[in-house]
Specification:
The protein has 414 residues and is an alpha+beta fold. It has helices at residues 2-34, 97-132, 138-171, 300-304, 330-340, and strands at 38-42, 44-60, 63-66, 72-77, 84-85, 90-94, 173-175, 180-185, 192-193, 203-206, 211-219, 231-236, 244-258, 261-271, 282-299, 316-320, 323-327, 352-353, 356-357, 359-364, 370-380, 384-389, 397-402. The strands form 6 sheets. The chain has a 6-stranded antiparallel beta barrel. It has a 4-stranded antiparallel beta sheet with strand order 3-10-8-5, with no helix packed on it. Helix 2 packs antiparallel against helix 3.
């Protein structure tokens, strides 16, 4: 008898445990169904600034590369890096010995040509008198005339050679063509420089470092937003705590294509009164292409959200008196049908409203399922997007992303 009672108690305990576990699991499933499936964020009002991000390099507005027109050995260098120079100031001198020898040779050739010219003119004058007296034929007179003309041409050639050598002597002294600062030097005393088809760069002089430019590369997707005069904010690694300002000065039509990516050069003008910015620094720029002080703002993440198939509302069946009836929820069914197949969507062209593209955003509808809304947008940045039109209003919560699926016991994790 005692054994039977003990067995009955154990069986009752097992049954009670199973029943309790069953009700506990049902309760957990009910809680899981009530848990939010989505992360949402409210629509609000506020300012929006749209920018185009780009990386560029700082350069002086005017940079002059100074070379040489004559070959020779550097005999004297008078300036160095970072020296400030004025227009006409001597920067460097080449050894003039060879050029001076050519000048002496050209002078001797000029003297010889002038002597030949004097002789030819004297012969011609004498033949003129003899021909007038009938002692020589006209042909002889013409011969002396041609000789005098040839001697005159030889004088001009010799004089041109002398001028050329004199110019080379002047060019052996390298002078600055502008007022500025030396930012690059490639020559030193004793170095031999050779003038060829490509003139060697001896110095590079920046005209004024108080005015700088940033050369940035902007992708073709953003160039439609760029306009001359737009403000630009940027920072450089040398002064990470400080933000500098500039403005768009030029959009260059010449493009560059790298691995299928097309970019254009945007030139940004920068005031540099303290000369903190140096040539060659890398600038992280933000070009302000649009700004509005008070608009309705949708979280940009909501425009990127697309619900999964299993999260969409489904048509459900309800059983009454042993008979199965199909019971549709109008709003949920409309959302599901619009999301899955839009009869106006031909798969090629996007839907538009008054010429503006329609975007889809979702709120949490009945049965904790996504509800579709179509909106048109204005300016945008990584956080907010302007809502130009739509049936949503301020403080409506839109879905930004789905939370992770619940586990086997019905508990969800973000």
């Amino acid at each position: 008898m005692n054994k039977w009672i003990k067995t009955s108690l154990i069986a009752a305990l097992v049954v009670a445990t199973i029943v309790a576990l069953f009700f506990w699991m049902q309760k957990q499933k009910q809680k899981a169904q009530e848990l939010p499936k989505f992360r949402t964020q409210q629509i609000d009002r506020g300012p929006i600034t749209q920018v185009v991000m780009a990386t560029g390099t700082l350069q002086p507005v005017t940079t002059v590369n100074i070379g040489t027109q004559v070959s020779g050995t550097v005999s004297e260098r008078l300036v160095d890096f970072n020296d400030r120079v004025t227009k006409g100031q001597v920067l460097l001198k080449l050894d003039p010995a060879l050029i001076q020898a050519r000048i002496r040779q050209a002078k001797a050739q000029l003297a010889s040509a002038e002597a030949s010219l004097t002789l030819a003119l004297a012969n011609h004058e004498r033949n003129l008198r003899l021909q007038s007296q009938g002692f020589i034929a006209g042909a002889a007179l013409e011969q002396t005339k041609r000789e005098a003309q040839a001697a005159q041409a030889n004088v001009e050639v010799a004089r041109a050679q002398l001028d050329s050598s004199t110019t080379d002597l002047n060019n052996s002294i390298i002078r600055s063509p502008i007022d500025g600062i030396v930012i690059k030097r490639n020559a030193d005393v004793g170095q031999t420089v050779a003038a060829s088809f490509q003139t060697p760069d001896l110095f590079q002089i920046a005209q004024d470092l108080k005015q700088m430019q940033i050369y940035t590369s902007v992708s073709e997707a953003d160039v439609g937003l760029i306009k001359k005069g737009q403000p630009v904010r940027f920072f450089v690694d040398a002064y990470p705590e400080r933000e500098f300002e500039g403005k768009v000065e030029q959009f260059r039509l010449n493009h560059t294509s790298t691995a299928g990516v097309v970019t254009y050069i945007i030139v940004v003008g920068v005031d540099n009164p303290e000369e903190l910015l140096k040539p060659g620094m890398t600038a992280q720029t933000r070009i302000v292409v649009a700004s509005k002080p008070d608009v309705i703002r949708i979280p940009t993440a909501a425009l990127r959200f697309t619900p999964e198939e299993e999260l969409l509302p489904q048509k459900k069946q309800a059983t009454t008196d042993g008979k199965t009836e199909k019971k549709d929820k109008a709003s949920s069914a409309d959302t599901a049908e619009k999301t899955k197949t839009d009869p106006k969507d031909d798969g090629v062209f996007t839907s538009t409203k008054a010429g503006s593209r329609l975007f889809r955003v979702y709120t949490v509808g009945k049965d904790n399922t996504p509800k579709l809304h179509e909106v048109t947008i204005g300016i945008s940045n990584s956080r907010f997007t302007e809502m130009a039109s739509g049936d949503l209003k301020v403080k409506d919560a839109v879905i930004t992303r789905a939370l992770s699926a619940p586990n086997s016991f019905g508990t969800g994790n973000d």
